[in-house]
5-carboxymethyl-2-hydroxymuconate isomerase
Amino acid sequence: MPHFVIDCSQDIIRLKTPDEIMDVVYKTAESTGLFAVNDIKVRLCPYQYYRLGEDKKNFIHIFGYIMEGRNTEQKAVLSRKIITGLTELFPDISFLSISINDFETATYCNKSLVNPENHDQNRHFEL
């Protein structure tokens, strides 16, 4: 946790490499101090087929999924910092946005949580 899924038009990865794009998101999330460095995950999904408004060519939207517990101000700062970093990388992109969504601790599950040896219900067990 957290997961940052970057949806973008396919032309975006012709302008900058996937690593350059993902590094901005990763390093910015890391710089906030909100997450353990080893927990941050970033994925990039370029789309060949999409439709935008008239005369609009490219887009980037980041879906951020984080464990609940951060306040609104922390999430807003995270959003602004990521968009600021990507704006520097892509000053001419038509659509550049992010949304941050919380995972509920009560309904979140991963492989560590179902391990029968994990008696403390530590979601990082054996990682």
Q: What stands out?
A: Helices lie at 12-15, 18-31, 72-89. The first strand starts at residue 3 and ends at 9. DSSP finds three helices and four strands in the chain. The beta strands are 3-9, 41-47, 59-67, 95-103.
